[in-house]
Specification:
Protein name: NADH:ubiquinone oxidoreductase complex assembly factor 7
Bound molecules: S-adenosyl-L-homocysteine
Number of strands: 17
Oligomer: single chain
Distance between the termini: 6 Å
């Protein structure tokens, strides 16, 4: 079957690209951009109180408080995605992104033997746009999936965003669950009749056969930062500036801190960022996939253990000093894919990371673009499709900076040689779509 022609061929989405907006992977920062706003936010007051009582805090603690503190955290109350917000992500730019990911999950489900049921679990689903595009593909390929029992499981800490996700997916306001004992805090049914549940933590999602998706999720998890000094590694901490009241500054810990154990013995960089929470999530995903099957697809901007200082802030589509007006801007750091692979501890096979432009091309984005362009004469829609394609694929835009990593059970690759075929010098194609060219049947 030609998946790309069948997937949503009759449906062109309304204009959604809001160009030019800033995507978070764009810049590096030393955190020294000029302050845009010196206002004393409730979060700043909270942090100053905390530091005065217990001393300087790690960058990881700072990031966690600023982003996800239940009362004042940036993610808890904001809708930060899109033109009116602080940054834009691939699914908000073009419907093609989610459609191709939808095809990836179906392709994996078929390749792994068409299990009678699967859970689709998304970590940090934003506005729910990516899932909406994936579900449209599932509906269009309904004849394939008609005997499969699908459920959706959303891991989201933000009350505000979970409300938006519910509206996107179910077209209704979904009330909070009353049962305080249950880890499910919201429950609904999508437009196409698929049950959907919301959780605050991946640990709470039922350990069933699942496909996991994390797009621009790992980059918001808190990082520890370390600087190499003549006295060895020292952790970067956040302290109150003694010269200026109500202002924060970075300092180095006077001696070794417990988090230093995360640094590799053979580390050659002089500044590193480590994200232990990402390690915990990867271990949980790997454990689950090795026990129950399924797969995980992780997409984010990042590097393979080579970059140093990538911690930065975004507000209103501009870079924002990470220590200024905390709680009003997004904070992020590039994902270290080499660390994610290491944390899977051999429990699963990993594919990638490969660049977004390669993954999407392997998934057939060029064919998909052509099909969608052939469907419309509307100049604004055609322009949206072409601009969206350029944004996702152009190496100077998102094409190179964003990467895809997949985790699959070892059995999924069993019997195949992925390195090199003994009689050929060329690597044999990956059996996992996106990580090799899509086989057209
Ligand atoms: N995947 C979406 C949104 C990316 S923004 C997209 O690509 O458009 C990051 C998302 O992760 C938001 O939904 C945010 O609320 C959520 N998030 C941040 N920290 C989280 C945490 N610790 N646990 C679960 N979700 C989190």
């Amino acid at each position: 079957m030609n998946f790309l022609a069948a997937a949503g061929a009759r449906r062109l989405c309304a204009v959604r690209a809001v160009l030019p907006c800033l995507w978070r992977g764009k810049y590096f920062s030393s955190g020294n951009e000029p302050a845009e706003n010196n206002s004393v936010t409730p979060m700043l007051r909270h942090l100053i109180y905390k530091i005065k009582s217990t001393g300087p805090i790690t960058v990881a603690e700072y990031m966690k408080e600023v982003l996800t503190n239940p009362a004042k955290g940036y993610y808890m109350k904001h809708d930060m995605l899109g033109e009116e917000g602080d940054f834009i992500t691939s699914p908000e730019i073009s419907q093609m992104f989610g459609e191709l990911l939808g095809i990836w999950f179906i392709s994996e489900w078929i390749a792994a033997g068409k299990n009678a049921a699967f859970q689709l679990v998304e970590l940090g689903p934003g506005k729910g746009t990516l899932l909406e595009d994936i579900l449209r593909v599932f509906s269009q390929l309904g004849s394939l999936l008609k005997n499969c029992d699908i459920s959706l499981h959303l891991v989201e800490v933000s009350q505000k965003l979970s409300e938006i996700q519910a509206l996107t997916l179910t077209e209704e306001k979904v009330p909070l669950e009353r049962n305080a004992e249950s880890p499910v805090y919201m429950k609904g049914v999508t437009k196409s009749g698929i049950p959907v549940s919301w959780y605050r933590d991946l640990q709470d999602v039922p350990k069933e056969y699942s496909f996991y998706l994390a797009h621009e999720f790992f980059d918001v998890l808190p990082v520890h930062k370390f600087q190499k000094t003549p006295h060895g590694w020292r952790e970067v901490l956040v302290d109150i500036d003694p010269q200026v009241s109500d202002k924060l500054r970075f300092v180095l810990a006077p001696c070794a801190t417990p988090a230093e154990t995360f640094i590799q013995d053979d580390e050659t960089r002089d500044h590193v960022e480590v994200c232990p929470e990402a390690g915990v999530v990867i271990q949980e995903l790997s454990q689950r996939i090795s026990l129950t099957g399924g797969a995980a697809l992780i997409a984010d901007y990042g590097h393979d253990g080579t970059k140093t200082d990538t911690f930065r802030g975004f507000r209103g589509h501009r870079l924002h000093d990470v220590l200024t007006a905390p709680g009003t801007a997004d904070l992020t750091a590039d994902v270290d894919f080499s660390y994610l692979r290491r944390m899977s501890q051999g429990k699963v096979a990993s594919l990638g990371p490969i660049e977004q432009q390669t993954f999407l091309r392997n998934m057939g984005i060029d064919v998909r673009l052509k099909i969608l362009l052939d469907k419309t004469d509307e100049p604004s829609l055609r322009q949206q499709l072409l601009q969206g394609y350029n944004m996702l694929m152009n190496p100077m835009k998102m094409g190179e900076r964003f990467n895809f990593l997949a985790l699959v059970p070892h059995q999924r690759l069993h019997g195949r040689n992925h390195q090199t075929n003994a009689r050929q010098s060329k690597p044999s194609p990956s059996p996992v779509a996106g990580f090799g060219e899509l086989a057209w049947k």
